[in-house]
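Model it.
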Amino acid sequence: MVSMRTAETFSKAIGVDHLVNQTNLTGPGPQIVVSPNVDTLYSVAVLDLRRGPEMLTVPAIQNRYYVYQFLDMFTQSFAYVGTRATAGRAGSWVVAAPGWHGQVPTGDSVIRSSTPVVFLLGRFLVFGETDLPATRAMMAQVRLAPLNGAPSLGQSHSRPNGTESTATLPATQLGLGAARGSPQNVAQAGAAFFDELGDDLAVNPPTTSADRSELDRFASLGVGPGRHPAANGTSTRRAALARGVSEGAAQVLRAVASTSHGVNGWVEHLDVGRYSSNFLVRAEIAQTGWGSNIPQEAVYINSSRDGHGDPYSGSRSYVMRFPAGSLPPAKAFWSLTAYGPDRFLVANAEDRYSIGSHTPRLQTNPDGSLDLYLQATLPSAHTSNWLPIPTDEFTLTMRIYLPLPPVLLGRYRLPPVEPTDP
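Modeled.
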């Protein structure tokens, strides 16, 4: 439901089967996707493959990191095009719904989706504000078009929220009908959660044996594709369904809280992006980092407590010291981002929300170590190494894109974030 609500939210803004490019780096604007990346420009498209296959055409891109991630409606990252997956080569990829058996142009590749609705999420690394025009120009060369029919190219035109589109077809929506809440509050639907789930499953039935087996357990309660157990059930059943939603949401929150004490205050998941039967982790990531990549593409390491185990507070100042030779091992880039406790960005006067390997003028110490200074107010020194933090509670996320083996094998450890005030 989180994925379908996210897809529906975007389809209402940008339409369906339209590739829309972000023109400015993400800031504390509309709160749609939790833990947004602020180091890359996004490309977004909601694909409704019930209308037929779509073809993504990408030029050769060798001088910067980029990725197009394909997410099904069960939050599984089922395919990639980009620096790692396709070596940045030029090509066209036909994205087809389950069961499609049509003809593909010679030389093109086929990506078979596991659900008819697909979320396409692109990311292009930006080397600072001065690099934005070059990044935009490169993104504008990427095309999304129907496999059979007139290409939806045309001139780029403005879209809401700092994006532009490479499509000129009239906007359409997924046509799911009833009003739906935000992706972050699915539990507030109560027993009606299962009616909405029935509508979603009618469009995107489960494709893995693990998902089908789990769903079969609830068939006796009237839960399943196209079914509405709350609307059609007795008051006793509705109460039981509502209780199940409440208890399930509490279980997810407990899972999030239970991972708040990791090594040096940092918690990492190396089992995200593709979940198999790990349903609780999938629900946890949907709540805290929807759209996460598989570890080979990016690893996300989160922290809500300092090196002493105390919750972060914007009333304090902190330093994060990387000893010489211990920076995050990344083939692409690494970055540290500060969020509010809800994992959305919080506005600051500097309009600066991350710091990392591509940050201009980072200064190392004479011994080769690197200090990052985290505080709400401008420091008297070390401004090039300063990450502004919210004035109240906050959380941190370290991103390591194209991580090297020490990260993927769980051997790399981030240093603690230490308070510098009494």
